[in-house]
Write a structure and sequence with these properties.
The complex is a heterodimer of chains A (about 120) and B (about 110).
Chain A (H helix, E strand, L loop, with lengths): L4 E3 L2 E4 L5 E6 L6 E7 L6 E7 L2 E4 L8 E4 L6 E5 L8 E8 L9 E2 L3 E5 L1
Parallel strand pairs in A: 2-11
Antiparallel strand pairs in A: 1-3, 3-8, 4-5, 4-9, 5-6, 7-8, 9-10, 9-11
Chain B lengths: L4 E3 L2 E5 L4 E6 L4 E9 L5 E8 L4 E4 L2 E6 L4 E6 L8 E9 L6 E3 L3 E6 L1
Parallel strand pairs in B: 2-11
Antiparallel strand pairs in B: 1-3, 3-8, 4-5, 4-9, 6-7, 7-8, 9-10, 9-11
Chain lengths: ~120, ~110
């Protein structure tokens, strides 16, 4: 069974440029998460989807970040424009909706470097 | 902001020794989970302990939970070089068990 797939794995851009990350969760997992992980820190939730609905986006900086999950399967996270402080690893995870004790399955992440 | 605080931030031991990592948290929880992250990889779920459990085992892993002290510990016995990784605790609150809040992690190095 394929795990969570993310692309690209690495991205280097100049500040003020846009960037997009893509995630395909495990088949059958209705819940999808986007996390930001700074160096030496644990992941911090940006947004959580239940199917196509964003049920928790309180930590998403909405002035420059946006996300979508139009068909309730794969998802795209966008930053426009990128700032130097956005350099981090962006992790996608998925889990089975409705499970009280949710184990999350993580993708390998996209390492973003903003120059 | 991150709820969990992990101790120590870094731990280096010899292969074969036991490794103990601690996690403290602030709010009431539904469950607490431990994850491992190898360098450049995503996180991998290790073990989940519910708020009404005090101890749980999985292979060489032993997790304890003390809800009165709001703390948990992860013990890895008979460590191997392949255990070298960062280990994170994550808490799911009573209000929202679908949301995990991660600690800053413990970087474990096993020396051969």
């Amino acid at each position: 069974e394929a795990g969570v797939v993310q692309s690209p794995r690495y991205k280097i851009i100049e500040k003020k440029q846009p960037v997009a990350f893509w995630c395909n969760p495990i088949s059958g997992h209705n819940t999808l998460y986007w996390y930001l992980q700074n160096l030496g820190q644990g992941p911090e939730l940006l947004i959580r989807y239940e199917n196509e609905e964003a049920v928790d986006d309180s930590q998403l900086p909405k002035d420059r970040f946006s996300a979508e999950r139009l068909k309730g399967v794969d998802s795209t996270l966008k930053i426009q424009p990128a700032e130097l402080g956005d350099s981090a690893v962006y992790l996608c995870a998925s889990s089975i909706q409705g499970e009280t004790y949710n184990e999350q399955f993580f993708g390998p992440g996209t390492r973003l470097t903003v120059l | 902001s991150q709820q969990g605080e992990e101790d120590p931030q870094a731990l280096s031991i010899q292969e074969g020794e036991n490794a103990t990592m601690n996690c403290s948290y602030k709010t009431s929880i539904n469950n607490l989970q431990w994850y491992r992250q190898n360098s450049g990889r995503g996180l991998v779920h290790l073990i989940l302990i519910r708020s009404n459990e005090r101890e749980k085992h999985s292979g060489r892993l032993r997790v304890t939970l003390d809800t009165s002290k709001k703390s948990s510990s992860l013990l890895i016995t008979a460590s191997r070089a392949a255990d070298t990784a960062s280990y994170f605790c994550a808490t799911a609150s009573i209000q929202g068990a679908q949301k995990l809040v991660f600690g800053q992690g413990t970087r474990l190095t096993i020396n051969p």
